[in-house]
Design goal:
Layout (H helix, E strand, L loop, with lengths): L1 H12 L12 E8 L2 E8 L5 E8 L3 E3 L5 E5 L3 E10 L8 E7 L20 H4 L3 E5 L6 H10 L5 E4 L5 H12 L11 E4 L2 E3 L5 H12 L1
Parallel strand pairs: 8-9
Antiparallel strand pairs: 1-2, 2-6, 3-5, 3-7, 4-6, 8-10, 10-11
Length: 212
């Protein structure tokens, strides 16, 4: 019963997820040696994902017919299942492979506090600067996201100290290939600046670009 409820919960979380093998970073891959076919989940992103795999076939013998729910760590490859081809069959199978973007899933009960980026330690060591101001509606949530994911950052409130902010603007404007928009919050990760942030979704997208 517990497994069934877990499966239902996972499927509910994956309503907006990418369908089978269409994910940008996580792929279902296979390796075949003789009659043995091994299925893997390969993740090339810098964050972890939960995956769901269901295999349907009459051409292979399987150790279990149950769906597989696993977490795939950042930049990793894990074995999901091994299938043994039956004699006299073509070796065909159908699969449902779903990637749940757990790193960006929201826990409704806890609002934005449950965001979990599961970033590698080396990535978390990047220099992060966040510019805020007193009347910024989403700034508290952006800070909470960083803190809950143990991302060390330096905050500058431009209502109290605009010196550093003005310096950043000048740096940005010096790059003739970029156009600066005077938006807050403004995020700087290492030398990259993300200033077109108008929502929490925009902030999450900026972090994704910054840490990939």
């Amino acid at each position: 019963m517990k497994t069934y409820l877990t499966l239902i919960a996972f499927l509910l979380l994956t309503i907006n997820s990418f369908a089978q093998n269409n994910h940008k970073f996580v792929k279902l891959t296979e390796e075949k040696k003789g009659k043995r076919l091994t299925l893997y989940a390969t993740n090339t992103d810098s964050i972890s994902y939960d995956i769901f795999l269901k295999v349907d076939t009459k051409d292979f013998r399987r150790s279990s017919n149950r769906p597989i729910i696993r977490n795939v760590a950042a930049n990793s490859k894990i074995k999901l299942a091994t299938l043994i081809q039956l004699a006299g069959t073509e070796g065909n199978y159908n699969s449902i492979f779903v990637v749940n973007e757990v790193a960006y899933a929201l826990d409704v009960d806890k609002d934005f506090e449950a965001l979990d980026f599961k970033l590698d330690r080396a990535i978390k060591d990047k220099k992060v600067i966040l510019f805020t101001k007193d009347d910024c509606v989403i700034c508290p949530d952006t800070k909470r996201i960083l803190e809950n994911n143990k991302i060390t950052y330096t905050e500058y409130n431009i209502d109290k100290d605009s010196t550093t902010y003005i310096k950043i603007i000048k740096e940005f404007q010096a790059n003739k290939e970029s156009s600066f928009e005077n938006n807050i919050p403004l995020l700087k990760v290492e030398s990259k600046i993300y200033n077109n942030i108008e929502s929490i979704e925009d902030f999450i997208g900026a972090l994704r670009k910054a840490f990939n």
